[in-house]
């Protein structure tokens, strides 16, 4: 048996632990393992195919990143190719991929990735390539699994940032706005915000108003708590859209504000008169050594993916449905979207202890 | 409404986050909250009863320990009292407790604790005291809930210790033995061991033999991996009992070995000839700032306990049955014991990637 | 004896450890200690004066921030007062301060702060107020002392950020630009950059060119290291000034770029064609629990300041001149500026191991 | 030019950063670098000699341990050889080492190690081998340098342990005894103890009495602080010797107590009646990723060692005499011993804030 592993999309802490567990359990069964470099680029002749041995994966479980690299660009079904006139065109190169895989003797692919990679996996599956998927998302927005690796590390990174901002906010009586990842799903903001005892949490799933945000801050101020912490997911939307909070250029400057944190911070200071600072946590959330939770889950996923290959669960994704690991058809996963349910107990808990969602 | 909170048994990271969430959500409802110092000692006149306000719980969510203190000694139903002759006798002081609670106007108690506290809660409940319980156990051995707060922090602490021992083991070609908590349940050893990529994991639920442990170490040695990491739960039992691994005094010394780690380390060195060091992680596992996972879960439990009081769920324990919080009757919880299932996928995963359980 | 303590300027990890040590050692001598809230505001009737007891400082050594708060606004010698017409005017309120201090029976002030606070301390000293200063600067830019508390914590925070960006940069073959604090002194960028193995370090003390930065990145790329980490101090200046790197609006957007990291990242991507991301570490560098180094140094400074009061070292600052603590006249401190010496061995070391300063 | 690097004695965080900096700066000069495995074993034919390239040292600056391994056993001048009758005898194998080095074309050796390695370096130097040393000691007991790498990491590890024990001590009103490294020098205990706000610090340089220790604990108890933290260096000596604190077997057991922490804890509980727990931090202090301070210092030392080779500073050790790096003759270093000076300001600071040294 010869299998190949690929990692696609943004990196997440735990990718290497998945790779390690998959390689170790495949080697134990006597299988060969190849690593496809940079998503599927390795199978399109754009990058390498490397053998993965027990030595290749030694000591990597605790390391961030992915030893076989990853990429955000290019589905094999719509691969960007530069044309002679300099423009770019998406070309279907899936036949090429299928043939390369066959020539390399690859009998199954373990594809580790998020929604984009799952779609590719499903399409490859339909073309006869045997694929088993492992869900990967910092944002926790892949359906069918209670959670996936990387999310817990991101939540802890965000929470530690909130902890740090807390002391400086309190010492200076400031409002601190922290933007965390979450383009469509606010799980990081919600979990880190509650764990880090934020005062306001703004997520894509709950439409908010700047006035409600300021009300909360001023109510705290009035009760003697002269600082506040606001956590905002990058995809969070105010009522009336992004432009409703400072659409124009800054007064007296020819510079317009950038992301949600900067705009929000500007408006809070303008409306409350309180000194406000904003920061974007950005890629720090993707980096670093995975937490125990993520290392364990990633290891379980890696071993389970190899088991799924042995069980011929083609077109399935491994998933956590606590306390058990299961496999579910990728097409079922793709039919659903996973978002924060505003009625979920975590949101209710947050409200009960006085956190505002700006609604 | 006036409620009281108590924390009993060994401390666990997250206790303060439970207390904070319970106080904040009770205060939001306009309830009074009292803190009973040191388990139930405060209600027996042996310690204080303190008011808990929003100010009392400010900034404590990220702190280890418990602001109302805890104790391992003394059920009110069998409270140790020193007799005139100097001996100790257990006395039933529960009537006193009930009366003191009544005099203080306490209408319900939120009792945060492990098996011992759950039993007391059940007995108090039977005496007409209204109790809601919150499960607390570092070892993850309370039934009815997938997990509880403190466990994730303990696993991360143990995993980080394994990480640290790894580099020193590898630099010196040594065997390092790490003893972690787990008197009857091996969850910490199992989770931290897999996450930290231990080579051997010894837990109470799987009987092991010293020869199998040494075999694994020597097999690694033969393959060029001249170091090994052994994680052992404190309650882990070798075949033939504790004494089967060095029962006699150390040769040439009049000193006998102490705990499982010291004995095991001694025997590994004796039988494999490899330099071996052992350490006991001990109380480090109970201390420190809780992880994001634990702070969030503890906060949810605290708010859910207040909700359970509002819903008159007397004699119930709040519990996590992912993705939902539920309440279940304490007597059901007490009927079951929770241990590592040797057939669970985490154990299978560990075996698949080459970890030995010494069996 | 009655003394008062104030903390001024931006917060830094270790402030609380200074306060704690000063209070404990003053109380041991039987002295009274007052805390002046928010810089000197407390002595201008704009804020509180609070008693500081051993209980006030219990458990604070490991906490970021300052329990007596701080502020960036307002020297008592030029205090901003809003005029009836709405404009602001700076007013000398130092006589008021002196009188309030006398009325409170304050015999000496321990002033913890950076250059701004040192100037105020010197001026107060000249007005007959007895002052002892403790240097405080995240940037390590106060002369006369080898280092001060807060800097080590900031360096570790920045280094950990670099570590995190490293894995994501490597997985994606990206250039990551990290902006750290350092308006005029590049110590944080230099120390964190070398410790975190950055590839390019840009500091205010060494003028750099964008082309040299891109050369280094492309040389790495050519040798197979397809990612790079650039650490830039916020006050770092390219040859030709800030505007030399993208002064105009972004092509196709009406939005101009903001800080140095964003501009630099944009230019690197434009000139090298490599995917580049930038982030500003910002206030994370001021927050969090101080490192062991900072807690110890802060504790030594706090005790030394009380000793300096006992020794009547009015107008002196405590300082570290390894391995000894000394006191030096504030006016001497103010005569010098402390910057990275481009010939210092740390810079030479960095060059020797292949780090580029863009020059 | 061809140089070789060896690491000897116990491992310390930062060894890899020294190796990396030495290799990178040597390669920049066009030199060849060899790694001698396990101290000098590689040069005695007992282990390998490996080439060290820029690729060998990629990504290792932040890793604990040493990629060329280390050992505590065997000076080449007194190398333990097993005799035909099974006994061991120390044999001078230095001629063999010199010849092997010559045959490999090694022109200079960078020897990274503590007192033992320094002595070997000095002896080799006298035999005509060109050696430059880099000081390595967790305990900070090498003379001639203000500090060396590894110590700061060990202090932080110990301080974090104290932090964790603090919360559990306070929650349970317990005395916690923590044993840290320091056989003859108490720097780790002193620095971590002050930074972690221990109540009692016991070091080899200050003789103490168990009664004074208990007095301090009871004085705290009387003032309402019902818990205490005791930090004890492993080599710390009570007046009357180790046996003065529980020399006999435990009452009712045939087991004698082991190390200083266990004995001390037993006696504190016996004499004060307070529940006491002890733990030995052990090898955790040697492991883990080095702090920023240690990574920077190790990097400076590595580059400086190569510079010293270029400058033909044979028989010299690189050293930190803040703010400068210098080189000093190894024989000077060996003439001195470095211990905590009981009159140093850190000890005085500790006393001023109420810490007891048990004297």
TrEMBL record, chains A, B, C, D:
It comes from the Bacteria. ATP binds at residues 10, 73-74, 114-117. Belongs to the phosphofructokinase type A (PFKA) family. Mixed-substrate PFK group III subfamily. HAMAP family: Phosphofructokinase_III (MF_01976). This is ATP-dependent 6-phosphofructokinase. Its cofactor is Mg(2+). Pathway: Carbohydrate degradation; glycolysis; D-glyceraldehyde 3-phosphate and glycerone phosphate from D-glucose: step 3/4. GO terms for cellular component: 6-phosphofructokinase complex. Mg(2+) binds at residue 115. Its main location: cytoplasm. Substrate binds at residues 137-139, 174, 181-183, 234, 277, 283-286. GO terms for biological process: canonical glycolysis; fructose 1,6-bisphosphate metabolic process; fructose 6-phosphate metabolic process. It comes from Gemmatimonas phototrophica. One of its GO terms (molecular function) is diphosphate-fructose-6-phosphate 1-phosphotransferase activity. It catalyses: beta-D-fructose 6-phosphate + ATP = beta-D-fructose 1,6-bisphosphate + ADP + H(+). Catalyzes the phosphorylation of D-fructose 6-phosphate to fructose 1,6-bisphosphate by ATP, the first committing step of glycolysis. Homodimer or homotetramer. Keywords: ATP-binding, Cytoplasm, Glycolysis, Kinase, Magnesium, Metal-binding, Nucleotide-binding, Transferase. Residues 2-309 form the Phosphofructokinase domain. It is found in: Cytoplasm. Its EC number is 2.7.1.11.
């Amino acid at each position: 048996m010869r299998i190949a592993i690929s990692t696609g999309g943004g990196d997440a802490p735990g990718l290497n632990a998945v790779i390690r567990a998959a390689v170790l359990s495949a080697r134990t069964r006597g299988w060969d393992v190849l690593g496809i470099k940079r998503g599927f680029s390795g199978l399109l002749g754009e990058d390498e195919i490397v053998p993965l041995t027990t030595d290749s994966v030694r000591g990597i479980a605790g390391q961030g990143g992915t030893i076989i690299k990853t990429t955000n660009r290019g589905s094999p079904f719509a691969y960007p190719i530069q044309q002679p006139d300099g423009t770019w065109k998406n070309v279907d190169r899936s036949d090429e991929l299928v043939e390369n895989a066959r020539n390399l003797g690859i009998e199954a692919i373990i594809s580790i990735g998020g929604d984009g990679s799952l779609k590719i996996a499903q399409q490859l599956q339909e073309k006869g390539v045997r694929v088993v998927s492992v869900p990967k998302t910092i944002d926790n927005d892949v359906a069918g699994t209670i959670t996936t690796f990387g999310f817990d590390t991101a939540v802890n990174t965000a929470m530690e940032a909130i902890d740090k901002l807390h002391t400086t906010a309190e010492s200076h009586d400031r409002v601190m706005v922290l933007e965390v990842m979450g383009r469509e799903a606010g799980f990081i903001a919600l979990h880190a915000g509650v764990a880090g005892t934020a005062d306001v949490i703004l997520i894509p799933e709950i439409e908010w108003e700047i006035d409600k945000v300021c009300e909360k801050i001023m109510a705290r101020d009035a009760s003697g708590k002269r600082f506040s912490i606001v956590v905002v997911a990058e995809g969070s939307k105010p009522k009336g859209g992004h432009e409703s909070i400072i659409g124009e250029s800054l007064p007296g400057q020819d510079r317009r504000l950038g992301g949600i944190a900067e705009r929000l911070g500007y408006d809070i200071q303008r409306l409350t008169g309180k000194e406000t600072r904003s920061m974007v946590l950005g890629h720090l959330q993707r980096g670093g050594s995975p937490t125990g939770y993520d290392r364990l889950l990633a290891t379980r996923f890696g071993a389970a993916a190899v088991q799924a290959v042995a069980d011929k669960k083609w077109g399935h994704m491994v998933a956590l449905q606590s306390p058990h690991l299961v496999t579910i058809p990728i097409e079922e996963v793709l039919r659903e979207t996973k978002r924060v349910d505003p009625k979920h107990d975590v949101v209710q808990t947050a409200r009960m202890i006085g956190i505002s969602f700006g609604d």
